[in-house]
């Protein structure tokens, strides 16, 4: 350059002073402010002819091609003064490292671009976020989400040192056989394409990134890939004006900053044979510049593509593109030949020098507005974490949730309910391993999983049909081939035969994780969910939507068939099942919560407070943290998973007995102000008969805390063992009560337990005293009034209809022992490792079913039960309890600082032990369990916290969990991670429970 570099930098600082702090990109390059004019003039005048020409070139750059490629890029920057780079595959760290290296080498900052149609993941798929492709976005009805995506991609691009996004795609895709656009288009409707293209553009440019509309004049109706050959579009000018050009005209009017000229032959616009539109002056200059009035930058599509190189020699492509009217030559094949050809065209009068100057000045002005007036070197440190931020991940989930499209539901199966007489079956097609979709289904009930290939044989078909019965609901999932642009789902005749047979026998729900054009083959089926892609976030969103955790609002962006037309889509309402979402979506700092809980879990396991645990936090009906730690035992034999089923101990009091009593109160079958003796005549003549039920629930009836019933059944002496009077090692005669798998009690032992309860004194009359005995009696009350044991009553009225497959007494009847950690090495009663049988001795003597202990369950299922209570008795579209009865039971008993009816509540007396987080509201309710469990629900914060462990293994005398206050501190962490309301949720505060239920708070 003519100016020294130091003087040039001084000019940059002087003339770019007004740019500092400016973010919105201004697209009209025909109008300059005075500072812009001075800067562009000064820089242009300082350049040599080659430096000016170099600004019109944007070359290919990779971060995964090694030193020879890097050297080539550096040579082109040095020798040809190129104006920009277009980055492709690699890693974000290496790309930024190279960007900074290349920027330091260039006299004038480089304009850096990427194809980022679905985010940085389009080029860096294994390292950065891939948002939904535009076809899935075309299904979304809330266009604000498209803007938010554009804004977030802009943030990520700034962080990576990128200035230009080659997006949005404005092609109106009306050809199902399009091999290169397909899922990259917003769809077949010009208005939908325009509206979403505008919002995407606005999100980018409002945040300082140059957007580029492509592929002008419209690549949507082709069946040839322009990377391989020159497509021909034979439509009339009237048709082009009506469809293909419509979105481009609109976005030009509303301020698109750049447009990419495609490689298409369009005889109606330029009749010359083999003349690509990118090299056509009638199309680029006469139509785009003059007729349509575009005043921004024009990029060519990649000039390496066969659609443009097939009929032109080296350098001729670039010269023809400049002559046609383009400003920036993207990916030239031979830059030296291009320079020579352009100079020759100028000398021959085919290109005017004034046109070159105009183009260079446009590029310089665009650089000024992008802040490329002085070098900027973003730090590589912490890059990946900042690109893949929690907020960015949250947005991805929101986009996929909003795109899910229930094309039709003739049988009214969605949201799916647990069938009354059948089971739920998942049938994976073409996926041999469990998928994110099928794994999430497991959170909504007991699912029978089947799988088959894409062309099932007659034998496979018969085997599958033998596993399916009338009354079953069969959820079939079909997955795309993973192709980058097409996402094709193949539906074979063999597969159709199987699906038809299932549909005749059971209720069939078909879910398609791929291109919606695949729906044409599925016209014969009545319930169809289109999920657009096999992306794991889409799979998760589909499963949640099918079960009603999220609404379904998407509409088909294309016509697949007469039964799957454009805009088809049913809207459902969320039926308030527990869903899953990133913590940030509900105002919780996920990184902070995870770091704190991880540290506390590590401490607990290091101190041998418990061998393992599961921790769950849910807010506003969404599970935002669910993590398993450690192993079933200290021998590291089996890792804990979120589906591990723990002995819940005294959580049974609220999760089974109290709920059952609440239901019977709701039905008018129990009066809380009556006595136990009113319902249980066998108590006549005992001191238990006059006990008030309300007082028993509140532990204010004066009962003993507990009785060690088992001790009366042991042999006397220093080494007591189960007496043969009461026990046998196998089931025989009257010895039918299973205490363990090798210890059976005589059924008269149960009568003995009851008699000791009846005969026990009331040492705590008039005082609060926590008591197991009251809940033995409450379970008997449930049995007597309902005719069902508390286990069966709770299962029939709550667990089974809610799809909570793990909540059960005597779990080995239905749950694999591999899911259940042991609770103790019992050397004082059962003389074995207790696993899959209730730990509590008294409950064990009752055959595993008692009102105070015996329930097992996973963290998710416990949380769902308490979410139902927070939702005022509704869950999954069904009412289980009235709001009034929930309020009555979760309010403090008169004069109590801690107890509700059945439920434990936050201790309000500062002089007593605080049983939960200091930050919990006074309305929080739940219970602790002896084996190392806890569940707390806070209506004020709409939060559920669950902690499950087997701290009693190997010895119940291990009290380190309580001494460390692990359960309380982890709950503290959930509250501490909550964001202030002012920072909560980018699109507004999440609704309260009452608001979500459509009720007044």
From TrEMBL:
Residues 50-364 form the Glycoside hydrolase family 3 N-terminal domain. Residues 1-21 form the signal peptide. Its EC number is 3.2.1.52. It is an enzyme of class 3 (hydrolase). Residues 982-1001 are annotated as: Disordered. The keyword Lipid metabolism does not apply. One of its GO terms (biological process) is carbohydrate metabolic process. InterPro entries: Beta-lactam-related (IPR001466), Beta-lactam/transpept-like (IPR012338), GH (IPR017853), Glyco_hydro_3_C_sf (IPR036881), Glyco_hydro_3_N (IPR001764), Glyco_hydro_3_N_sf (IPR036962), NagZ_Beta-hexosaminidase (IPR050226). It catalyses: Hydrolysis of terminal non-reducing N-acetyl-D-hexosamine residues in N-acetyl-beta-D-hexosaminides. Keywords: Glycosidase, Hydrolase, Signal. GO terms for molecular function: beta-N-acetylhexosaminidase activity. Residues 597-959 form the Beta-lactamase-related domain. The keyword Hydrolase applies. Pfam families: Beta-lactamase, Glyco_hydro_3. Belongs to the glycosyl hydrolase 3 family. This is beta-N-acetylhexosaminidase.
């Amino acid at each position: 350059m003519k100016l020294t570099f130091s003087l040039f930098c001084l000019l940059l600082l002087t003339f770019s002073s007004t740019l500092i702090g400016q973010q919105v990109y201004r697209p009209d390059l025909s109008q300059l402010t005075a500072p812009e004019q001075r800067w562009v003039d000064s820089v242009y005048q300082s350049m040599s002819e080659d430096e000016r020409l170099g600004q019109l070139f944007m070359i290919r750059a990779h971060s995964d091609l090694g030193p020879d490629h890097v050297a080539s890029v550096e040579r082109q920057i040095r020798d040809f003064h190129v104006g920009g780079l277009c980055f492709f595959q690699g890693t974000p760290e290496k790309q930024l490292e190279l960007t900074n290296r290349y920027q330091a080498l260039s006299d004038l900052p480089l304009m850096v671009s990427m194809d980022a149609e679905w985010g940085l993941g389009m080029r860096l798929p294994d390292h950065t976020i891939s948002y939904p492709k535009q076809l899935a976005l075309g299904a979304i009805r809330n266009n604000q989400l498209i803007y938010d995506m554009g804004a977030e991609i802009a943030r990520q691009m700034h962080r990576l040192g990128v200035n230009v996004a080659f997006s949005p795609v404005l092609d109106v895709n009306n050809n199902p056989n399009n091999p290169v656009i397909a899922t990259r288009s917003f769809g077949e409707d010009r208005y939908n394409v325009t509206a979403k293209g505008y919002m995407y553009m606005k999100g980018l440019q409002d945040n300082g990134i140059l957007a580029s509309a492509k592929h002008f004049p419209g690549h949507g109706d082709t069946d040839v890939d322009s990377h391989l050959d020159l497509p021909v579009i034979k439509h009339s000018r009237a048709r082009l004006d009506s469809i293909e050009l419509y979105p481009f005209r609109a976005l030009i009017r509303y301020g698109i900053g750049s447009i990419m000229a495609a490689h298409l032959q369009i005889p109606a616009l330029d009749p010359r044979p083999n003349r690509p539109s990118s090299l056509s002056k009638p199309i680029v200059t006469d139509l785009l510049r003059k007729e349509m009035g575009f005043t921004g930058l024009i990029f060519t599509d990649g000039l390496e593509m066969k659609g443009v190189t097939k009929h032109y020699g080296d350098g001729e492509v670039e010269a023809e593109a400049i002559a046609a009217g383009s400003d920036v030559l993207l990916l030239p094949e031979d830059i030296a030949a291009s320079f020579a050809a352009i100079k020759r065209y100028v000398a021959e009068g085919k290109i005017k020098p004034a046109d070159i100057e105009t183009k260079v000045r446009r590029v310089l002005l665009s650089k000024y507005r992008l802040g490329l007036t002085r070098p900027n070197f973003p730090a590589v440190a912490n890059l990946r974490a900042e690109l893949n931020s929690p907020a960015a991940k949250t947005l991805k989930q929101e986009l996929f949730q909003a795109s899910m499209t229930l094309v039709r539901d003739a049988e009214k199966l969605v949201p799916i309910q647990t069938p009354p007489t059948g089971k739920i079956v998942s049938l994976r097609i073409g996926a041999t391993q469990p998928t994110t979709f099928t794994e999430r289904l497991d959170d909504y009930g007991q699912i029978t999983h089947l799988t088959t290939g894409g062309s099932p044989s007659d034998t496979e078909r018969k085997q599958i049909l033998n596993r399916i019965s009338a009354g079953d609901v069969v959820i079939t999932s079909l997955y795309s081939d993973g192709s980058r642009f097409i996402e094709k789902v193949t539906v074979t005749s063999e597969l159709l035969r199987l699906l038809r047979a299932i549909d005749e026998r059971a209720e069939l729900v078909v879910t398609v994780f791929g291109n919606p054009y695949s729906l044409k083959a599925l016209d014969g089926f009545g319930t169809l969910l289109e999920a657009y892609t096999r992306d794991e976030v889409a799979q998760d969103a589909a499963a949640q939507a099918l079960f009603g955790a999220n609404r379904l609002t998407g509409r088909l962006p294309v016509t697949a068939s007469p039964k799957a037309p454009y805009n088809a889509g049913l809207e459902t309402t969320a039926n308030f099942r527990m869903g899953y979402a990133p913590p940030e979506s509900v105002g919780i700092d996920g990184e902070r919560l995870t770091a704190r809980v991880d540290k506390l879990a590590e401490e607990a396991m290091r101190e041998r407070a418990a061998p393992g645990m599961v921790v769950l936090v849910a807010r506003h009906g969404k599970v935002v943290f669910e993590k398993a730690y450690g192993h079933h035992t200290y021998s590291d034999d089996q890792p804990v998973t979120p589906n591990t089923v723990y002995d819940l101990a005294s959580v049974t009091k609220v999760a089974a007995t109290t709920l059952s009593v609440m239901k019977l109160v709701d039905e008018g079958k129990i009066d809380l102000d009556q006595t136990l003796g009113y319902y249980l005549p066998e108590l006549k003549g005992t001191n238990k008969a006059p006990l008030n039920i309300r007082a028993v629930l509140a532990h204010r009836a004066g009962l003993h805390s507990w009785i060690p019933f088992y001790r009366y059944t042991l042999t006397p002496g220093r080494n007591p063992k189960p007496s043969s009077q009461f026990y046998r090692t196998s089931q025989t005669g009257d010895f039918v009560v299973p205490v363990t798998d090798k210890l059976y009690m005589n059924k008269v032992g149960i009568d003995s337990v009851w008699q000791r309860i009846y005969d026990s004194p009331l040492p705590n009359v008039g005082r609060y005293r926590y008591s197991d005995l009251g809940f033995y009696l409450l379970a008997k009350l449930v049995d007597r009034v309902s005719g069902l044991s508390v286990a069966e009553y709770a299962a029939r009225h709550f667990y089974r209809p809610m799809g909570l497959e793990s909540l059960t007494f005597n779990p080995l009847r239905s749950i694999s022992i591999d899911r259940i950690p042991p609770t103790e090495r019992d050397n004082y009663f059962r003389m074995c490792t207790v696993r899959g049988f209730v730990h509590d001795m008294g409950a064990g003597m009752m055959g595993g079913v008692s009102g105070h202990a015996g329930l097992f369950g996973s963290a998710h299922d416990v949380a769902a039960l308490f979410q139902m209570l927070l939702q005022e008795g509704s869950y999954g579209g069904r009412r289980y309890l009235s709001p009034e009865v929930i309020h009555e039971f979760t309010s403090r008993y008169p004069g109590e600082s801690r107890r509700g009816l059945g439920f434990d509540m936050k201790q309000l007396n500062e002089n007593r032990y605080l049983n939960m987080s200091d930050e919990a509201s006074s309305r929080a309710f739940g219970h602790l369990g002896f084996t190392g469990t806890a569940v707390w629900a806070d209506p004020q914060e709409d939060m559920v916290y669950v902690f499950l462990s087997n701290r009693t293994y190997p010895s119940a005398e291990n009290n380190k969990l309580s001494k460390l206050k692990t359960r309380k501190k982890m709950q503290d962490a959930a509250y501490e991670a909550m964001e202030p309301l002012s920072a909560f949720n980018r699109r507004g505060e999440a609704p309260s429970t009452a608001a979500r239920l459509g009720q007044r708070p």
